[in-house]
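I'll show a typical protein example:
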Amino acid sequence: MKSGFVNIFGKPNAGKSTLLNALVGEKMAIVSHKVQTTRHRIKAILTNEDYQVIFSDTPGIIEPRYKLHEKMMEAVRSGLEDADVALLIADLREPAEESHAVFASLKLKAPAIVVLNKADSAGPEKQEQAASFFRQQPYCKEVVVVSALKKKGVDRLLERILHYLPEGEAFYPGDDMSDLPTKFFVSEMIREKIFQFLGDEIPYHTTVLVNEFKEKTTLVKIAADIIVQRESQKGIILGEKGSMIRKLGTEARKDIEAFLGQKIFLELFVKVRPKWRDNEMQLREYGY
C-alpha cells in the first residue's frame, strides 16, 4: 500500500484546479479562466486497493496585497510542509523562466514532478524546449507533459506520482473524497458562477457564506449570503429586477444538485461588508 500527500503548486491560472479534477475524476475545485480563483487549500482523496493519494490544490502564488491574499499564501506554505510529492505545474504557453522563478523560490524538500500543462495549445518543439529547460533544474525529478482539460497524459502522471509516493497505510476511510465539509463545496459552486457571469472586478471583491444547510425528506434547503464590499457591487449582483441573482441561483443549483445527487431549494442573499478582505474577524467568519 502506498499513501501520501501530493500537493500542486504554480502560478495563477496554470491549470492547478483543472489538473486536480482530472486526477481524481470528480469536480472538487472550481475552475475559471480568470486568475486567482482558488483561495483555499482544497484536498481531494483518491483511494484504490493499492494506494491512497491525498491531492492538494493550493492558491496561485502571488505577492499579497490584502489580508485575504496573506491567508491564501499561508495555504501554500502549509502545502510545502506536508508534501510527500510536489507537482509543479507550468503553462506551456508562457515563458518557462517565469514558472522556474516561482518553483525555485519554494525551496522544496519533497521530490518534485514538473507538469507541463496545456499541451493541446503547444506543439512538440515547444514542449521539448520546456521539458529540456526544467530537466536541468535541481528541484526537478522528472517532467510530464499533460493537457489537464483534455485529460491527456493524466494516467501517466498518476503512474509517476505513485513511483515517488511512500509506502504506508491510508490516512482516510476509503469512501472519503475530501476532508472539507459539504457546505464548503456548495459555497465554492456559487462562487464559481460569480466568476463565470460577472466582470473582471466583482468576483475578487466577493465571497460566499452558507448559513443554512437542512436536509429534509424530499430535498436539501440551502441559504447563502453573497458578500460584497460596496453597495454598487450589490446592485450588479442583483441585476435589473433581480435578473442576475436569479441566473446565478439557477446555474449554481444545477451543479449543487449534481454534486449532492438530490434536489435542492437554494436561496441567495447579497450583503455589503466594507473592506472584508482586510478584516481578520470577517475573514475567519467566512472560512479563511
